[in-house]
Design brief:
CATH architecture of the largest domain: 3-Layer(aba) Sandwich
Bound molecules: NADPH dihydro-nicotinamide-adenine-dinucleotide phosphate
Helix content: 25-40%
CATH superfamily of the largest domain: Aldehyde Dehydrogenase, Chain A, domain 1
Strand content: 15-25%
Oligomer: single chain
Largest sheet: 7 strands, mixed
CATH class of the largest domain: Alpha Beta
Number of domains: 2
Number of helices: 15
Radius of gyration: 24 Å
Number of strands: 27
């Protein structure tokens, strides 16, 4: 295949931004690592140096946890009224809007994602802070007025305490904004660790929080790696809860690590999300959604629609049209506003994507398009071609494991039961979609598919109001919506006797 088979956006500008220096935020103060250690991050699209980052060790991680504990125990945040907490969250939302361009640019340079998408994500993140502010003001428990005339029961909702928030690299600013404002709305304090690949925008968030007036110690940020920073954040006895987004393998390791101190764990993990197409589907909409679902964020997306399960009668047409539309998706320089798909996050991840395709081909799969590196004029980064793979069996790794790249697997079915067997056959259960003009087909599929989110005749819509999370190996708990707030709350039962009506036991 030649470059003419794709829509490529050549380098439009070379980033000559000043080196971004990133430090830890501990107890309201920006600090270097005690041992002076640092690491660097290059742009995965341009190959240029973007950031130099303090590399966290035990000293700063423990100091951050101590600060969060002290702030929580002193009630610096949890004792504020919902109104006062909401006021600060709203200020942060406004400042995110004011700093959108700056945040988006760093997000592009560290993650390789396209600028127009990054700007949309930062705008969406501000909306999450605003929505969380509304939850801070409306948070409440229950009352039970039906326990008899001498008893009133009250259920209090209290912040769970100190939360460790551990984030991945694929949506750095958006994912921290799916967690932190909800934790803060609940009254918790936090220690945040971004991925070492995308550290900078979380540090900007720290700046905005300080400027908005959050008390020192309420939000602490430690930069660095899973070992030792993430590991200490998940085992330390002063941490009450871990909110994690990342791979299922690390999610399982965190479940084990937290067992000794019995922390609550909320986890958003991987997915192998199917879009199922019945013969009566509106193919124009479905094909666009398939292309969006697999190439958005270069497929480095927990919600990636990484497999389609297509009725045999339309499989040939759907595959042909998906391939044709794949050629039109603009891949290339993420700083160009026309680009829809940028670079892969780093070379070892690129190699992992390639090996899934190579192994599938060796096992008899057919590459309909792509499957190889893309050469983009003027760019040094690793770009993976839009890829569609057919002639698969459901047991092949490419058909059931998370590739996390722009690689679509095509499977076929004859009956609803077969479609559901394929959809539910993976160990994951994050999201699923169904395409049919028949409401009965959509409803039956929605009820029987094992997934935290089901889209009917659409893909990957999301709202701060709507809960998000997975079943099976896609994680535990929910983010967003009021369920996302509940994750950070503890329930306390208060039972109050009215009058001296208690009968003595002895
Ligand atoms: P990882 O699971 O490798 O890492 C996620 C975060 O956990 C990083 O900050 C990482 O630190 C940290 N970490 C690694 N090891 C440990 C440990 N032992 N203890 C505590 N923290 C640790 O995921 P990626 O960053 O590579 O992200 C990609 C993965 O995330 C994909 O598999 C994807 O499916 C999943 N994901 C799921 C989402 C969902 O909502 N379901 C959303 C986004 C991604 P370090 O800096 O060292 O990497």
């Amino acid at each position: 295949m030649t470059a003419h088979d794709y829509t490529l956006i050549a380098a439009s500008q070379s980033p000559d931004d000043a080196l971004n220096e990133v430090r830890h935020l501990v107890d309201g103060v920006w600090i270097d690592s005690a041992d002076g250690a640092t690491f660097e991050r290059q742009s995965p699209a341009h190959g240029t140096l973007v950031s130099r980052i303090a590399k966290g060790g035990a000293a700063e991680t423990e100091a951050a946890i101590a600060a969060a504990r002290k702030a929580f125990d002193a009630g610096l945040w949890s004792d504020l009224s919902g109104k006062d907490r909401a006021t600060i969250l709203l200020k942060v939302a406004d400042m995110i809007d004011e700093n959108r361009g700056r945040i988006a640019r760093l997000e592009v340079l560290e993650s390789g994602k396209p600028i127009s998408q990054a700007e949309g994500e930062i705008e969406g993140a501000a909306d999450l802070w605003r929505y969380a502010a509304s939850l801070a003001r409306t948070l409440h428990g229950d009352s039970h007025n039906t326990l008899g005339k001498d008893m009133l029961g009250v259920v209090l909702k209290e912040p769970i305490g100190v939360v460790s928030i551990i984030c991945p690299w694929n949506f750095p600013f958006l994912i921290v904004s799916q967690k932190l404002p909800y934790a803060l709305a609940a009254g918790c304090t936090a220690v945040v660790k971004p991925s070492e690949l995308t550290p900078s925008t979380t540090a900007i968030l720290g700046e905005l929080l300080i400027e908005a007036g959050i008390p020192a110690g309420v939000v602490n940020i430690v930069q660095g790696f899973g070992d030792p920073v993430g590991s200490i954040m998940t085992t330390h006895e002063d941490v009450d809860m871990v909110s994690f987004t990342g791979s299922t393998a690390v999610g399982k390791a965190i479940e084990k690590a937290t067992a000794d101190t019995l922390k609550k764990v909320s986890s958003e993990l991987g997915g192998k999300n199917p879009q199922v197409l019945f013969p009566d589907a509106d193919l124009d909409s479905a094909i666009d959604a398939i292309v969006f679902g697999i190439y958005f964020n270069a497929g480095e997306c927990c919600n990636s629609g990484s497999r389609i399960i297509v009725h045999e009668d339309i499989a040939e047409e759907v595959t042909r049209r998906v391939v044709e539309l794949s050629r039109e998706v603009p891949f290339g320089d993420p700083l160009n506003p026309d680009t829809k798909v940028g670079a892969i996050i780093h070379q070892s991840h690129f190699d992992k994507i390639s090996s899934y395709v190579e192994d599938a081909v060796a096992a008899g799969a057919k590459v309909e398009i792509g499957g190889a590196p893309l050469s983009v004029d003027g760019m040094d980064g690793a770009f993976f071609a839009p890829t569609v793979v057919s002639n698969l069996t459901p047991d092949m790794p490419i058909a059931r494991e998370e590739v996390f790249g722009p690689v679509l697997s095509v499977l076929t079915f004859k009956t609803m039961d077969q479609a559901l067997d394929l959809a539910n056959g993976a160990s994951y259960g994050l999201s699923a979609g169904v395409w049919s003009e028949n409401i009965h087909t959509c409803l039956e599929f929605s009820r029987r598919v094992q997934a935290g989110t089901v889209w009917t005749n659409t893909w990957m819509d999301g709202y701060p109001e709507m809960p998000f999370g997975g079943v099976k190996e896609s994680g535990q708990g929910r983010e967003l919506g009021r369920y996302g707030l509940e994750e950070f709350l503890e329930v306390k039962t208060v039972q109050m006797r009215i009058g001296r009506t208690r009968a003595n036991w002895i």
